[in-house]
Amino acid sequence: MAAALQAWGTSVLASGDALEVSDMHATEFSYFFDDPDMDFHFGNLILGSVSTGGAEIGEAFYAASHIEDGDAASWQREWLALAERVEARGRESLAGGHVVSARTQLLRAVNYYRFSVISMLADNPLFKPTSMKVRSLMRETGKLLDPPLEYFKVPFEDTVLPGYYRPATRDNQSAPTLLMIGGGETFAEDLFFFIAPQAHARGYNFATVDLPGQGLLPFEGQIFRTDTNIALKAVVDHVLTLPGVDEKRFAAYGFSGGGLFVPQAAMHDPRIKAVVMTSAVVDAHPLFATMPAALATPEEMDTWSDFHRDVVRSICWRYGVPQDEPFALIEANKGNTFDPARIEAPALIIVGQGEYKSLEVQRQQKIAMDNFPNPLKKMVVTPADEGAANHCILENRSLVGQVLFDWLDAVFAKESNP
User: Fold this and answer.
1) Does residue 111 have a pLDDT over 90?
2) Would you say the pTM of this structure is higher than 0.85?
3) CA 390 to CA 392: how far, in whole Å?
4) % of residues, the chain, pLDDT over 90
5) DSSP per residue over 149-168, as a string?
6) At 24, is the pLDDT very low, low, confident or very high (cuts 50, 70, 90)?
7) Parallel, antiparallel, or unpaired for β 159-166 and 205-209?
8) 175-202 burial, b if ≥16 CB within 10 A, otherwise e?
C-alpha cells in the first residue's frame, strides 16, 4: 500500500487535470468582511467559538466594526483592546469571589488575545509576549474550572510539548478520553474552545497539546516535520499516565493538519483505540499543490491584503521555509503521508460539504475509506444547509460534537461488548 500511495501522489502531481486549485479557507457565504481570509477567521474561528464560551456576539461584532477590512494592524489592535477589557471585568469578578463570572470572562479574554496574533508575524514585538499571555491566562483560568483544566509538559527532544488535561470528574473516575490535535495554524488553547466543553458534557476526559510547528514551538527550533508520529508517541505515553484515563477507551481526534498527524501516529501506535479526522489528509504534498496560497509568487503576494499575506507568512515560518516563498510549502510536505491500510483502529472522517467540493479532498477521503481495514469506519459530510460546510467545520462545533461523540460512544460500547 505504501508504494501504491507514493505512486498515486506522484501521478496526481504529474496530471494537470487532477490538480484543481481549491482554497481551504473559502467559506460558503460571507460573514462580515470583504477580505476572504479575514472573513474566514472571523466567521469560523471567532463566531464559531461562541457556543463553547470563547466569544460573545456583541463583543465580536463591536471589535469587527472597528477593524479596517483586510488590515492586519487594525485586526490586532481591536482584539487586543477587547481582550484587555474583558480580562479586566473578569479580574474584578475574581477579586469579589465570583468564580463563575470570573472564569467565563477570563476564558473569552484568553480567546481574544489569541485572535489578535492570527495576523502577527513572529518578529512582531507583540507576538511572543501576547502568545505567552494566552498561555499564562489559560493556565490561571483553567484552575477556576470544576474540575480544573491542568497544564502539563511532555519532554521531547531538546524542549517540551505544552498541553492541557481536563478530567471528566473531580475524583478522577475512569472515563473515555479524547486527545485533540490541531493543524498548521493552531495553539493548544484553540482546541479547548473547539470541543473541550462538549467532551466534558458527555463524560469524557479531554487532552490537547502543541506538536512541533504549533504554538510557540518554532521559537525552539521545532517546526513541522514529516514524522510527527514520533512526537505524538511521547504525548500518548504521557496522557495514558494521567488520572482517570481508561486505556481501552482512548481516542485521538485531528483536524486540519491533525487529520494527517493523528492517523500517522495510529499507524505506529495501537494504544490509540479510535481515530477521528476532519478531514483525512492521506498525502499533504498534492493537497498543498492545490492551494492558491502555496502557488503564489512574491509578486502575487504583493497584491494580497496584508492580513492574508501575514497569515500565509506565519504558516511558512512554522514550516521553516522563507516567508515570501509559500510555494516551498509544497516541497516541505513531500513524504508527509499516512497509510490507511496500516491503521487497525476504528476510524471516522468528518468533512464539511464546502470543503468536500475539492476534487483532491474527495480523492483523499476515498483513498482512506477504501483502505481502512477496520469495519467500524465511517465518513460523514456535514451539510451546508446546517451551517457546517467550511474547513474543519469551525462554524458549527455542536454538530461536530454530535457526530463525533455519538460515533465514539457507539464504538466504545461495541468494543466493550463485542
Assistant:
1) yes
2) yes
3) 6
4) 92
5) PEEEEEEETTEEEEEEEE-S
6) confident
7) antiparallel
8) bbbbbbbbbbbbbbbbbbbbbbbbbbeb
101: exposed, middle or buried (Cβ count in 10 Å: 0-12, 13-18, 19+): middle
Confidence of residue 4 (pLDDT cuts 50, 70, 90): very low
Separation between Cα atoms, residue 400 and residue 326, nearest integer Å:
31
Residue by residue, DSSP assigns 57-72 as HHHHHHHHHTSPTT-H
For residue 19, the one-letter residue type is L
Q: Is residue 256 flagged as an active site residue? A: yes
Contact between 276 and 408 (Cβ < 8 Å): yes
User: Which pLDDT does position 23 carry in this prediction?
Assistant: 85
Domains of the chain, first to last: 2-17+25-32+148-416 (3.40.50.1820), 53-144 (1.20.1440.110)
Question: What does the DSSP assignment read for 317-356?
Answer: HHHTS-TT-TTHHHHHTTT-B--GGG--S-EEEEEETTGG
Region 108-120: mean pLDDT is: 98
DSSP characters over 269-294: -TT--EEEEES--SBHHHHHTT-GGG
Q: Annotated catalytic residue: which of 49, 116, 256, 305?
A: 256
Averaged pLDDT score across all residues of the chain: 95
